[in-house]
Amino acid sequence: MDNTILSQNTPAWRFQVWIAFALSFGLTLFGLYCAEIDIWTKGYLAMGVIFTVGSCFSLAKTVRDDHEYDKVVNRVSAAKTEQILKEYEGK
Question: Which positions ≥6 away from 82 have C-beta within 8 Å?
């Protein structure tokens, strides 16, 4: 009994996500570049923006991996339960 629902993102959704990411990251860096502050402050803020983006990617990957792991554990548990029920009904 396999209740797995496979879903794949559409090309339009992937395009929208990548465009939103590129625009937000690019415009943030452009705004930082145009800001009337000294170069050391710009550098510090740019490092903060880049670190935040990298952390977001890492967090998203970790959440996805945890979700995938939970799905596998639940499937194994369900298979074991189903096997035990079949053995019980067979007696």
Answer: 1
Residue whose structure tokens are 């970790």:
62
pTM above the 0.90 mark?
no
pLDDT in tens, 45-62: 999 999 999 999 999 999
Please list, in sequence order, all residues whose beta carbon lies within 8 angstroms of the beta carbon of residue 32, skipping any fewer than 6 positions away: 42, 45, 46, 49
Kindly write down the DSSP assignment for every residue of the chain, as one continuous string: ----------HHHHHHHHHHHHHHHHHHHHHHHHSSS-HHHHHHHHHHHHHHHHHHHHHHHHHHHHHHHHHHHHHHHHHHHHHHHHHHHH-
- The answer to whether the beta carbons of residues 33 and 49 sit under 8 Å apart is no
Place of tokens 């792991």: 69
